[in-house]
Predict the structure.
Amino acid sequence: MAVRSTRQEAVLLLRQGVRNSEVSRRLGVPQGTVGAWKHHDLAGRGKLPGRKRSTCPHCYGDELNRSSYAYLLGLYLGDGHILLPNEYRKTQSLQVTCDEKWPGIIDSVEQAMRQVLPHNTPCRVRRTGCRDVKVYSNHLVCLFPQHGPGRKHERTIALEPWQQEIVDAHPWEFLRGLVHSDGCRITNWTTRTVAGVRKRYEYPRYFFTNTSTDIIGLFTATLDAVGVQWKHASRSNGAANISVARKASVALMDAHIGPKH
């Protein structure tokens, strides 16, 4: 019977699931050499794991996690932006900036990215007082065709029919993404005199602020669709401020969105 070579012995152990480091120890071969033998063996059998392509429902007809996409779309329209490839980066990147006071939202952003782009790994970049949650994919513009030159409030922002269909099916996820980016839930207070006694009353309300009239329109149209009453007020910096203060409407928002966390 022919005697197996050291390489053949290593490959046999590797196929049995023995770790590279253990094969190296048993046979007295450097780990780098074991790794190279394993690579060539997998390649020769057509089992070399390749880089998975990014999910894209438009280019490849992939299934899209629609509820997570609705949430991520709201985040993108609020505090997100896409960077295109240039001499320093080869891939498009989506970046959503999150206040570090709300770690739960940071986790939600990352989770949504993983669910919409399951073959891509998000990362977090620390900045002063905030975190940038980023994901890389050359199909981001396919997923977010609202991308364009200049700031969002300086260009038209309109949903494609397929996006509007998703928002119509998952309006609360879309609203949650917008509120988590450019909105808040606060507690207002006022005083009233009852039977000669001045009392303090507190009541919660939601605010959403954005400079883009188109994004404000998407927000208020979706509020109308879910039966939330709202009021509009302009701010001195040119942004629009949407307030939800009616008790029943706040209760609806609390049931589906709630305070930041």
